[in-house]
Amino acid sequence: MQNRFTQLMGIRYPIIQGGMAWSSDGTLAAAVSNAGGAGIIGSGGRTTDWVEAEIRKAKSLTDKPFGVNLMLMAPNVREIADLVCREKAAFVTTGAGSPIPWIQPFHEAGVKIIPVVPNVKLAKRVAAAGVDAMVIEGMEGGGHIGTISTMSLLENVLKDHYDIPVLAAGGIADGRGLAAALLMGADGVQMGSRFLLTTECPAHQKVKDMIVHAVDTDNVVTGYSRGMGVRCLKNAFTEKYLAAETSGAPKETLMELGTGTSRIGMKDGDTVNGSIMVGESLAVLNDVLPCKDVVERIVREAKETLAKAAEITL
């Protein structure tokens, strides 16, 4: 399954793993890369020392390309960026800020830069600025979301030709989703939630169990009315947060309510008071497997779906 994205990255399959805060470490990144995709270490909320240790761990576990997700508004973003350049990670994905000032420093260090973008305006801007590829992410994904659905975003962005690979993300959790993205004109996909449910993922077992047993209506978005939407599973935390949000609580109060809840949920396993960030495709997120098995199944499903599509006559 080769195309311009796999050739750019030196990987077997056009699949990258999302850089999920508190759930993406060196072990997971290496496992995804060894399986033929491109793994990512999530630096959100982490210290520079932690990121350094995880990069070196990943290097000890794989000789395949892997990357680091960089949150551009993080207080230690410059330290982590300098670290990524020194350690020569294959690529970075970026979010929560403009990636354009970072293009030249990363390129000078031989690091590819792949921003995650939520709309056409930013897609055109980063492509013109010289990024290596981009991920267009719809609001069906877990965690922080934009305002446009994945299908509409693909329609809007991919009506134009880009000289760089364009990947789709947001609610894509199996091979049918990969096939659909490819048929729409994307060069691959980014998946986060599917890789939460892997044996190598450090997310707490209670979190994995909660996702496995969730049904399609168990998803909710907090903070959307204030322009800071976060998609997660319903629990006591989301009830408390949404009650405050709908009652008109100030943004500062809502930010205080949400601070630290990702770590409490994803890392500590408090599925009552923590934020359990996961995308909307819950019906297919029903088993925990090694990354190798996950990637092989995704590829098999995608090939089967594409073969069926080829048989359709209009």
Tell me what the structure shows.
The chain is α/β, with parallel strands linked by helices and 314 residues long. Helices cover 42% and strands 15% of the residues. It has 14 helices and eleven strands. The strands form two sheets. An eight-stranded parallel beta sheet has the order 1-9-8-6-5-4-3-2. A three-stranded antiparallel beta sheet has the order 7-11-10, with helices on one face. α3 (48-61) runs parallel beside α4 and α8 packs across α14. It starts with a helix and ends with a helix.
Largest sheet: 8 strands, parallel
How many individual helices? 14
Using only C-alpha atoms, the radius of gyration works out to 18 Å
* Share of β-strand residues: 5-15%
Oligomer: single chain
The number of distinct β-strands equals: 11
Helix amount, in percent?
A: 40-55%
Q: SS-based structural class?
A: alpha/beta
Mean pLDDT: 95
Strand order of the largest sheet: 1-9-8-6-5-4-3-2
The residue ranges in which pLDDT falls below 50 over 5 or more consecutive positions are none
Q: What topology does this entry show?
A:
Blueprint: H1 4-9, E1 15-17, H2 26-34, E2 39-42, H3 48-61, E3 66-71, H4 77-87, E4 91-95, H5 103-108, E5 112-117, H6 120-129, E6 134-137, E7 143-144, H7 150-157, E8 166-169, H8 175-184, E9 188-191, H9 193-196, H10 205-213, E10 219-222, E11 230-233, H11 236-246, H12 251-258, H13 261-267, H14 291-310
Parallel strand pairs: 1-9, 2-3, 3-4, 4-5, 5-6, 6-8, 8-9
Antiparallel strand pairs: 7-11, 10-11
